[in-house]
Amino acid sequence: MLCQLLEGVQQKHPWTVAERSIIERRIDLGTCIHNERDVRAYIASQAPNKASVDDFWRLIWEQNVQTIVMLANLYEDTKERCLQYWPKEENETQCFGYINVTWTKTQHFADYVIRTLSVERGGTIREVKQLHFKEWPDKDVPDSAMCLVEFARHCKLIHFKKQTPLLIHCSAGIGRTGTFIGLLSMMDVLQSKEYIDIFAFVNKMRENRVNMIQTKKQYRYLHTCLYEFHLTRDCQISAQILSRFKIHDNKAAILREFELLSEVEMSKTNDSLKTGGTTDSLARGNSTDSLETGGSMKTEHAPRDRFGNMVPTGRRKVFMLSSSPSNPDNYINASFVKSYEKKDAFITTQSPLPNTIEDFWRMIYDHKCHTVVMLNQLDKSDKDSVTAVWFI
């Protein structure tokens, strides 16, 4: 239930439906959302399907959309949530009505992908950037706040100074879409003002489109994202600047940055405790996972943990794929860690205990690890605690 954005059309209800300019039938395409300055900055859209994909591209063309933000995956919980509205392979072209779309370039990051699309109609060619955030479950929230904040920063960098609306869609175009629009708009406010009114902005969004931000969890997550955005600066440094960066001259800045990490960590601790989690979630440095898992582990796993307060939780826990009678739950004290460009680039784990050395090697085999980096020294006098991993 989206609307074609036509100037001068009165919105009679949150799901505005307007007549198509050429084909005389009613269609649903997108809703205009204004930012905090009352500028038509966003188009909130549902994901296209087979019946609407041609109209979806027609909307993009007519509104001169140059940036698309996709917050859903094609399939979620085994159900199709979004039709693939770009070509199947890079360097291929697909026709959508009178519009030809060519997928020309791809950039991969840990949580998202940026695709460059060449869009042609009647001999006129435009470039459209699609930013696809892949780590946001439907009616839920991502693993952490900072991953979405960094995505929003990258989105703003790409869309900087463009006068055309930013098209944002998830599946239904209300929950994740509303949360992200709220984040983008309030980030702008925080750049120039000392206060924000999240409630008022969400209420204003809902006057244009119903149920923008679907759940309490998403609304709370928006506050967490804005807190971390306000607390931290952009820590990305270009290679050119890094080559001239002098540690000695920037000790104060580095120390302040480390202190900010502690402040963010403390806020996650308080957030976890308020939502029924425990400080065990600090092992992941992630408060949102404790909302899902309760931040607790089974007591029978305690003998397999070297430190009781360093316990993996949430969606990044590592499980063995093969089975063992000695460990039927396939539990190991290990977590997946992302790199800048890859989701599960590393596995971090404790030094094996005598009763977990088999699990350690099973994990290496199951997850096809080709390299093991050991950063601790073996204390041969402590045979009950430290085990060499290269022999049993």
From TrEMBL:
Residues 269-293 have a biased composition (Polar residues). Residues 27-229, 254-392 form the Tyrosine-protein phosphatase domain. Pfam families: Y_phosphatase. Residues 298-307 have a biased composition (Basic and acidic residues). Keywords: Receptor. Gene3D superfamilies: Protein tyrosine phosphatase superfamily (3.90.190.10). One of its GO terms (molecular function) is protein tyrosine phosphatase activity. CDD domains: PTPc. This is Putative receptor-type tyrosine-protein phosphatase alpha. It comes from Stichopus japonicus (Sea cucumber). InterPro entries: Prot-tyrosine_phosphatase-like, Protein-Tyr_Phosphatase, PTP_cat, Tyr_Pase_AS, Tyr_Pase_cat, Tyr_Pase_dom. Residues 149-220 form the Tyrosine specific protein phosphatases domain. Residues 269-308 are annotated as: Disordered.
